[in-house]
Amino acid sequence: MSDLELLLPGEADMLVRGLRSFPLLEMGSARWNQQHEHLEKLNMQAILDATASQGEPIQELLVTHGKIPTLVGELIAVEMWKQKVFPVLCKLEDFKPQNTFPIYMVLHHEASIINLLETVFFHKEVCESAEDTVLDLVDYCHRKLTLLVARSGRGEPPEEEAEDVSPMKELQTQAELMEFEIALKALSVLRYVTDCVDSLSLSTLSRMLSTHNLPCLLVELLEHSPWSRREGGKLQQFEGGRWQTVAPSEQQKMSKLDGQVWIALYNLLLSPEARARYCLTGFAKGQLLKLRAFLTDTLIDQLPHLADLQGFLAHLAMAEPQPPKKDLVFEQIPEIWERLERENKGKWKAMAKHQLQHVFSPSEQDLRLQAQRWAETYRLDVLEAVSPERPRCAYCSAEASKRCSRCQNEWYCCRECQVKHWEKHRKACVPVAQGGRVK
């Protein structure tokens, strides 16, 4: 493991062995919270190991103990809870919680799992160990990317909450912002799945190429580029969990997310296994030929393999479209979403009311105990180590090394910037001893 260890090898093995699936009714319960804490530790340790390039024992443990299907099942379960139960909770008139953090942790659970999967799916053996649940994972990623394309047509999600909003309304805003980041993680996971296209089952290939027509969806993502925007005449890209202004000298550089889309397209269009399964209809041909406008010399210099894709598109432009295939195909279908929906159909409101009474209305003592456990899980030294970049000054955005001593939340590059920012920061500056929390 890495030099900065959150988990000892024996402890990591124990936590991985203990991973299990929970019914939707138990989301947010004490046992569920304990597993969420374990997943957060595994997630952070996996990032530390990957960053240190000293082997990745978390990935090996998940494969050895066959826990990737468990993680996929939990990912889809919390996705369904967010779609079916959370909206009911928000509408309950008698639910006015003083503290919404227990609900936030359930919402954040999906982000924790997809982040862990993004870290470990880089390795092909992880995709292979997913077994039949890779079908469910492909469907999950398709749902997220479809929402990402739809959102890009509506404009950017809000970044800041208005003042004097209810806690539940603020939680809904946070959930929407989180959904955007989860979708970007799902894009990376999908790209890693396409790296394994030569070993995927025919059912999975058919799901990706015929049922969902992922190549055409990826073209739409490149067209809309929801991770890029213009703000005040400046180009910004979403990276490292926030929007960052791109310097003029860097604007021709391919972003990480654009790179993920191009690599996924390369895998799905040029691998022999996928080419044999993908039907290049008139619609598909028209969509794919849009890629030629993006394939500049500058782009190909950064990702030379795209020269092969450029040649494929030149050949496609001259070829006649293929008629839609009408073959009778027997194939597997994803099971997790349909099973959960079947088991819980008609129970969503009752589930929300049960969780309101027994899960999301904790006593002050329960909250204090939970806060202590969260503080042990989210250690400052570990959080800083797994952060994708150095902290930035809250006032001038320069690289920062000093933290507000009162709340330990905001960062500054110097004392002068902290003083200038104090009027704006004062309202949010809650001392740690009084319940302040670290981002």
TrEMBL record:
**What is the protein name given in its UniProt record?**
Zinc finger MYND domain-containing protein 10
Q: Does the keyword Membrane apply?
A: yes
Provide this UniProt record's keywords sorted from A to Z. Answer: Cell membrane, Cytoplasm, Cytoskeleton, Membrane, Metal-binding, Zinc, Zinc-finger
Select a single GO molecular function from the record's annotations and give it: zinc ion binding
Q: How is this protein organized at the quaternary level?
A: Interacts (via C-terminus) with DNAAF11 (via CS domain); this interaction stabilizes DNAAF11 at the protein level. Interacts (via C-terminus) with DNAL1; this interaction stabilizes DNAL1 at the protein level. Interacts with DNAAF4, HSPA8, IQUB, RUVBL2 and DYNTL5.
The GO annotation for biological process reads:
inner dynein arm assembly; motile cilium assembly; outer dynein arm assembly
Summary of the function given for this chain in its UniProt record: Plays a role in axonemal structure organization and motility. Involved in axonemal pre-assembly of inner and outer dynein arms (IDA and ODA, respectively) for proper axoneme building for cilia motility. May act by indirectly regulating transcription of dynein proteins.
Signal sequence interval, chain numbering:
none
User: Which family does the entry's similarity section mention?
Assistant: Belongs to the ZMYND10 family.
UniProt organism field: Myotis myotis
Pfam families the record matches: zf-MYND (PF01753)
